[in-house]
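Supplementary Note 3. Input sequence used for the single-chain structure prediction.
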Amino acid sequence: MSLPPTHPEQSASNRPGGMFGFTIVWIGQIISLLGTSMTGFAMTIWAYQKTNSATALAMVGFFFVAPMLIASPFAGALVDRSNRKMMMMVSDVASGIATIIILILYTTGRLEIWHLFITSAFQGVFQSFQWPAYSAAISTMIPKKQYGRANGMLSLADTASNIFAPILAGALIGIIGVSGILLIDIVTFSLAISALLLVHIPQPKITAEGLKARGSILKEAAFGFVYIWNRPSLLALQIVFLMGNFFVGIPGAVEAAMILANTGSNEKALAAVNSAGAIGGVIGGLVMSAWGGPKRRVHGVLLGWFVASLLGSVLMGFSRTIPFWVISAFLGMFFAPIINGSNQAIWQAKVPPDLQGKVFSIRRLIAWFVSPLAMLIAGPLSDKVLEPAMRDPQSTLATSVGWAVGIGPGRGMALLFIIGGIIAALVGLSGYVFRNLRDVDTLMPDHDTLPEVIPPDTRLPRLQQLLEERNQWVLQPASPERELALKAITSSLRQLGQGQAGQLVGNYDPLSGEDA
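The predicted structure, written as discrete structure tokens, is reproduced below.
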């Protein structure tokens, strides 16, 4: 017997939904991320061989991130105005178009480094749609108790691609060449789009806040800033990430240089540390996927920042041998999915789905804009101040902390890890001082407790739809599933009755099914 369309795992069109539908999309994204990461690895090798310039590689990243951040507020507004699944598909198609252009230029022998700048900017603009649309889609696909698990799965997909993509690309590039890697990427993004076509992603219900946010594209683009600013709990949560990202971002920018300086440019040591971090991220993602995070999600954020900063950055700074660097890299990345998954679950539970595109894009803009600043600070601070001081045994800094940190090449950057890690740990711990932050799980209502707003011209059709669905369930045998569905329909009818449903249908009582 087919189920009525109110069942969470099935849409009116009989396409998979709920956690099953999300898993299908997730598998498609894993495959797509793997192809994208393989292309990134192959193009990095090609670009460095062609230019022998680290600056050129950095500029490719800059031309991706800068347009993405600039476009984010407008992308968020468009996501909330549009179909979320369509926005995700548009982002995937744009990445595919960029890859096809690179493939054509490469196979014809015309590819230049500046072509990568243009295609990176193109991808960056459309990538600004992907994350807010994906995050908002989760909120409408699955129940909120599954948010932490779903976000752990997303983190797992990202970190897993970082492990396997370089291995696969490195093994295949000598056999099929760069063009073969690009073809694999095209196939993988096609599979991701196919996965999206298979599933049902519901559009969000209209809320009172969503109606107030409507207006011009400029107004909606700025709405996310206003929304976060007017909610002290969410603002405090965002400040934790802003400050934490800044203080771990500074040493993170010189991690590779620190390890190479301490090991006499031992590339195998750097590879071992990077791999350990990626493995830690995968295992952390698996744990978060199975566990779903703490019941009070704020503990996953604040304690996560505290422990990850101490065991990751601080331990990394004090360590002087490869085994301890490997351990600290593993532990630091292990907690990242728990921190990010818990944080994402809070925002998905609190922000109404019809606002999440606008709000989430501003979240990312605020969190990421400190990354370039951290990079600008890290280099000069290491090269001009800390490294010279820690290489001179007679300097004030070396005589003060050299006994604990060590003296010599790379120890100035190691000190940066210790300082940044301690401050980031204190940022996480200090969150418990502020009630708005430590009680964010309970102070702010979840979006599913807010009344649904039905536009006047759609109330009667919605009422008729709910009554039809109610009649379908009433005729089915008694079961726990039937009772849950009837309760959900009753709740929707009550919300509808808070508007003008009574005026539309006279004295009809939608809860009893009889004339009053």
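The longest strand covers residues 508-509. The CA atoms of residues 172 and 357 lie 38 Å apart.
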